[in-house]
Structures are given as structure tokens and as C-alpha cells.
Amino acid sequence: MKQAYDIVILGLSITSSWGNGHATTWRSLVKGLDARGRRVLFLEREQPWYAGNRDLADFPYCDVRLYSSLQDLREQYSTSVGEAGAVIVGSYVPDGIDVSAWVLQTAGGVCAFYDIDTPVTVAALERGDCAYLTAGLVPEFAVYMSFTAGPVLQQLQTRFGARRALPLYCSVDVDEYRPLAQPINVDLGYMGTYSADRQPKLRALLLDPARELTKQRFVVAGAQYPREIVWPGNVRHVEHLPPAEHRQFYGTQRFTLNLTRADMVATGYSPSVRLFEAAACGVPIISDEWPGLTEMFQVDDEILVARESSDVVDILQNVSEARRSRLAAAARHRVLTGHSGVHRALELETHLESAREHRSSRVVTA
């Protein structure tokens, strides 16, 4: 008889990182779970834009299955979901409301929600237009895990009735993301999908400095940028970089830029997976400012903060190579000792075990 899975995950995508930060987050987490001996099944809805941009073909750390519809999911994976020790539904899953209701009705083990977009989710729940979760479903999960920590966890419990709202930050695969000995040929780089609310910061903290520092070199990597954007002559734009090329991308930079979406700045305590990946690769980080950043990294010792264009210009012109190296080493140490996939897998197991001990009967209210 085939052994039941320890954990079944229904997530946005693990097969393609095109236009999303979920894939590398899930990959790091399931690799960490595998290292701890957990058997994991990842279920992903087949989508044409991901199908055309697969950037990982081999999944030695978990079983990955694609399903074509909610009906297909029900017909093929009811047994796996029903027998698993725990089932996790992620944010932005297509038909996520129906998927969550089905999981809550079907699963025999602990049911958890993992929100990799908490500020966006909470704002949508407040408006009543969240496409993948309803306020009524929040309290039905035994545990609501959030990549955002801080005050929003209390809000999830008091405003939306989450039984247990616990932090589970993104993480990084430290085997894949590590320093690379190669020549530096970019002064400042940025990786991130286009977002209208983030674009003013990209303009202020990269494009404007590039226009001022015409002899320095800049690069932006990310999908969905409008065609009408005029890139300065010393800024190169790369449409998409698969994770296999992230290490080389970071390794060529003197500094890399971290920018945060408006909802996540307002909520705070929302470290991007790119933040941990860049630090693991040993590149010094210039970040925008947001509440909770100082709980991730020590400002000025492990990371630099820029509030306006002149801050970036000053850093690029005046930070010495010795200090640059110290910043990189300190940030990498921080990630290696607290934000690897194995660290996060252990936290996940602790959250699930705690929820298992406090399980009570549930009534599904979609």
C-alpha cells in the first residue's frame, strides 16, 4: 500500500517563476522539508503562461502534479488530500475559494493556509473582493501562516477570526544561492516583476541615479514592464531570468536594490524572497524603508537604506570596497543562520504540530 504524504500543498506555482515570487519560495521550502525527511505532494493548476515559461523540469524534493480544473483536482487527488498528515493551501491559487472549501471538507489532517501575499490579501478581504479567499474561510483553517509578521497577525485573529495566525517568512535555498567568483560589471541591479505602485520607487532609486551617473551601469530584470517605459541608455532591461540564472545575475553587481510594494510597506514586516536570495549570493543590498526591516537585518551593518535618489548616488559613489565586502558577508551570515529553507521547514513543522494539538471541529463557510 502506498504511503500517505506527510504534506500536500496546493500553491500558485512551483514549476515556473515567471512573473511571481511564489515558485522559488515553494522550492526552498519543500527542499527543506525533504531534508527533514518529509514526503510532499505539490499540486499546481495548469496555466498557459506558466506552461510556456517552465524553468525547472526536475523536482527531486517532492512530487509535482498538474491539474486542469477543480473537477480534475477532485477526481484525481481526493485520496491524497484525505490521507495526508497536513494540507496547505497557498495564496493566489486559481479558484482558491472553491479549492479551500473542498480541502476543508476532504482533508483528514491539519488544514493550513500559507499567505505569501498577506498585505494584498488583507486589503482585498476588507474590500470583499479577494479572488482566492473569503473572510468566512479564514477561521476554518487550523492555522493561518503568513509571510508577513508584525501587527497584521493580530488583525487576522481579531478582525477575521483566524484561529492561529503565525509568521512563516519566505526563505532561500542556500545551496543554489551562494556567492559566485566572477567579475563585477554592474553597479546597481534590481529584480522584480513590474508593479504600478512600485514603479515610482524604481524610478527614484534606480532610473534617476542612472541618469545622473551616466558612466555607471544598471540592470533591471523582470516581466510585464510596459513597452512605453523609456530606459536610460546605461540601464539594461531583461524580460525574465529563470532561477538558474539568479546567482549569476546577483554575482555581477556591486549593489542590488530591494523594493517593496505599497501594501507591504504599509503593513510592514514583509521581507521579499529576493531580499534573502540576494543576501545569500553575497551582494550588498540597498533597500527602501519599511517597518520591520530592522528585525530582518541591521541597517548600516548588514543592509543600507535609501529614501531618495541622492542616497543611492551617495552609496554608489562613496561606499568603499572594504565596507561593501563587510556588508555582503554580514547579510549572508544573517540568512545562513536564520532564513534557509531548512530553517523555514522546521518552523512550518512546528506550526503544523501546534495546530494539530489544538484542532477542533470545523464547519466550512465559503
Structure, described:
This protein is an alpha/beta fold. The chain has a seven-stranded parallel beta sheet, sandwiched between helices. The protein folds into two domains: 182 residues, 3-Layer(aba) Sandwich (Rossmann fold); 151 residues, Rossmann fold (3-Layer(aba) Sandwich). The radius of gyration is 21 Å and the shape is globular. The C terminus is likely disordered. It is built from 14 helices and 13 strands.
Describe this structure in a few short sentences:
The protein has 366 residues and is α/β, with parallel strands linked by helices.
The CATH H-level superfamily of the largest domain is Glycogen Phosphorylase B
Largest sheet: 7 strands, parallel
Q: What do we call the CATH topology of the largest domain? A: Rossmann fold
- Helix % is 25-40%
What pattern of helices and strands is seen along the backbone?
A: EHEHEHEHEHEHEEHEEHEHHEHEHHH
Query: Nearest-angstrom radius of gyration?
Result: 21 Å
Report the total helices: 14
Through-space gap between termini: 34 Å
State the CATH architecture of the largest domain.
Answer: 3-Layer(aba) Sandwich
Find the count of extended strands (DSSP E, 2+ residues). Answer: 13
Strand order of the largest sheet: 3-2-1-4-5-6-7
Low-confidence stretches: 361-365
β-strand percent reads 15-25%
**Any idea of the CATH class of the largest domain?**
Alpha Beta
**What is the domain total for the residues?**
2
